[in-house]
Amino acid sequence: MALRRTLLVGSHLVELGSVVYSRHKLHLRNRTEGRQRRSNLNRSHS
Description:
Blueprint lengths: L1 H44 L1
């Protein structure tokens, strides 16, 4: 019984971790793209 519960919790943690990881990766990509866009704008201004 306890084994089944630990397996359930483990799969839940893996699911949560993958969601958080994908969201974090997306956020990092957006941040780097935003920085590149900003630097391009600054370059065109000067």
